[in-house]
Amino acid sequence: MLTYTIRRLVLSIPTLLFISIVIFLLLQLAPGDPMAQVPLTVPPEVKQKMRDALGLGAPIHVQYWKWLVQFFWIEPQVFIDWLTRDSFLFGWLPDTNLYNGQLRVISWQTRSPVMDIVVQRLPQTLWVVGMSYIVGILIALPIGIYSAYKQYSLFDQAGTFVSMIGFSIPPFFSGVLVIVIFSVNLGWFPSIYDTTHTVPFSDWLFGEVPFAGFWSAFKVQLNQMILPVMVLALQTTAQISRFMRASMLDNLNQDYVRTARAKGLKESVVVLVHVLRNSMIPIITVIALGVPSIFGGAIITETLFKVNGIGQLLLTALFANDLPMVMTLTFIFAILIVLFNLIADVLYGVLDPRIRYD
């Protein structure tokens, strides 16, 4: 398994390089000019200097090489320096000074480093989209398991009905619907997500903030997360519960299940140990490949609830023709997809001893 993992990691390098070239060339073909939003009062020679400063006058291969060096060499140095100085987990390590002020990947829209903006937006995306994914999985797995075990029962039919609703209703409709019902009519939850609100978890952990202050801030955060989490978790639950049900039904009719029952094993052991373990193999793929969507955010939902996450950042960058931002975000998503594909393959061998990559 270790040899297979190392081989896959080595093979992922040319794969990611090819993906980065394709993304870069496609973005170069996109229409628009990043200097189009510059006021008309700015003289042409000043605009030309601004274009040169942004690297727009260099050949395509030079621009790509600069981005490649900045992303794979300079940004990791900045990240290591941040870990040793400001990180809560690695602050005990000796300070490093790897980054010496080299030019980083700069956003054309904000004129600031792209990765700094991504780090600022990432907590909001993890709070909302990440939590909705976890909630959706925790709800979907029991529903899929019980629906398969009680096939064609009232519970199974109700689960199928709810899943069809989750598949059929798009987020831009369900999001507006829950805002109208729970925010406008009932007034239970806010319709706008306050991204300036923070929960002082580390301060409370070190005794700098009392538990009452931490708990009140946490309740406010939980209250504003309910609506967007509800909208996104509905889609996740609908998808994974259907896959779970189909996989369980396929394994419940296998010969090894009849053998286990004939040996006198309890029904709970047969279903939750033997059948569930084999049924989770295809579900691992669905769950693992869905993880990159957490970091990508949900563009529609984040826009509806005014969540300043990664999804909304990508949308604004596309509208502003901010190629460095779009290039960096899409490539990060590609890295996550390749990485979680590998994680899913490794988990196959953990769940099923018959699967080996020798």
UniProtKB/TrEMBL annotation:
Localization per record: Cell membrane
Signal peptide limits: none
Residue ranges annotated for the ABC transmembrane type-1 domain, each copy included: 122-344
UniProt membrane topology term: Multi-pass membrane protein
Alphabetized UniProt keyword annotations: Cell membrane, Membrane, Transmembrane, Transmembrane helix, Transport
Transmembrane segments: 9-30, 125-149, 161-189, 209-234, 283-305, 325-351
Family of the protein in this entry: Belongs to the binding-protein-dependent transport system permease family.
Protein name: ABC transporter permease
